[in-house]
Structure formats: C-alpha cells, structure tokens
Amino acid sequence: MSEERERVLRMLEEGKITAEQAARLIEALGRPRSAPGGPRSEGWLPPPRPPRPARVRMADLDRIPDIVASAVSSAMKSGFGAREGELRTEFPGKSSLFLKSVSGDVTVSGWDEDRIAIEGNTAMTRVREREDIVMVRTISGDFSVSLPREARFEVTTVSGDVKVEGVGGRFALKAVSGDVRLTGFAGEARVQTVSGEARFVDFAGRVEVESKSGDIELLTDGAVGGSVVSKSGEVALCLGERADVLLDLECEESGGIEFDAGLAHEVVEQAERRLKVRIGAGTQELKVRTSDADINVRRRKED
Asked: Range of 221's domain?
C-alpha cells in the first residue's frame, strides 16, 4: 500500500476524516496522474495505459470502514484464494484464533471441547493453519466460532458487531463501525472501538478498553481491574454487592462524575472532575478516563 493511502487510513482511524471522505481520497489516489510540467508533445508522452485497480492487501482491510471495504472487496478476484458460500469446518487440538472480518457480524463462544469450530455464510473466506493458530479472513457475511474457554484469540471487524461469551483466556478485539458485547468472561481482554458501543456483562479479571466515539457500559459483581479510556462516549459502571474494585475516575476536559450514594464505598480522593473510591476490598484498580463525556457509577439492580 502506498504511503499516501497509508496516511488516509491513519487519518480515518484518528477520526480526522469520515469513511466517505476516505473512500474518495483512495479512489483519487488510484487515478493516473498527468505528467509533470503540463502537456507535452506527442513524442514526449509515453503510450497511454489503462488504469489498473488499486491493490489492497487483506492485512489492510481491518482498517477500512464499510464504504471503503465495499469498494475494495468488489475489486478482489481469484487471487484471493478463498471459499464462497456456507463454510463449516473444525480444527482439533487448536487453541488460538486470529480472525478479521469485513461487513459481517462475528460471534465467539467458549466451550469445553479441545478444538476450534467455525461456521459462516460469506462472500469470501480464507482459512489457514500455522502451528497452534487458526487464521480466518472473511468478507461480507456473518461468522461464528466455538473455541476452548481458555483459548487466546484476536478478532478485528469492520462494519459488523462482535459478541463474545463464556471465555476465560486472553483476547483482543478491535471494532470499526460495530458494537461489541462481552458476556460471562473471566480473563484478560483488550478492546478497541472506533465508532460503536461496548458492553461488558458479568465479567471478572482485567480489561483494557479504548473508545473514540461510542458509549461503554460495564456490569460486574466481581473483582475487576485495568483501564477504560473514552474520547467522546459516556462510561457507565454498574456494580453489584460483591464488587471488588478501587475506582480511579477522571473527566479530563469536560463532563462530570455521577456516583450512586446507595452503593457502599469509601472515598479515597476527591477533586473537581476527579474521584477515587474503594468498593469492597478494592484489591484491583480500575482507571476510567474520559476527554469530553460523563462517568456514571451506580448500583446494579438484581435481575
């Protein structure tokens, strides 16, 4: 990928341009340029050549939101080496997953089997194995994966929602233009979202969450630690009676902190737009930072 296209995608990731603007810029970069110095005589100019479509690597697709992804996926031909239509396959003895998806929802579920099973109905899918790792790249279609509960995995989606449930290992998620929902996990999770909401339900362990423009909600009744960073989306923490956490909350530029007085806690430090409280034993610390959004801490209602 050219340096100019790399710069466009970087600006898109940073929120400096929209997906539509990125698509137009990438399209413009693929057009042939005029020779320097203006028009020349016929003997100077090389023979005209038809423009060739821009070549996009699969490794770059996780950085391109929906409108760009649609344009590049339609240009990808037989060189992709992929399967089309329904896909069902299993990988006995595998316990690591690397998955990238464009324009489709992804569901990852933990189970007690010693194998990885994948199922989906997509326009294009490529599956490869390397040692203990299963690598999947897919375009346009929903996808589901079942894997060992303690498996390690990494999932990147563009224009699609991600659901993860019943896992307990270490994993990383990155979502562009899609929501993330994690349910019933105990382990270490790193989650990055560009323009979607993130919701964590019934979890324990450590989380590293970063969001540019989506709200974040965490519902827990156990011991949690890590960090939550949000640029412009609100952060809500719903804590049960058995919650165990030292909360370090701060709205760095604007916004406010709302704290439910009915939630048993001990104030450790308090200042303007800053609050540090201990809930339960406070054995782990969870830092929450927002640039331009509120932080709301409340008692979780019993289901």
From this structure: 197-303
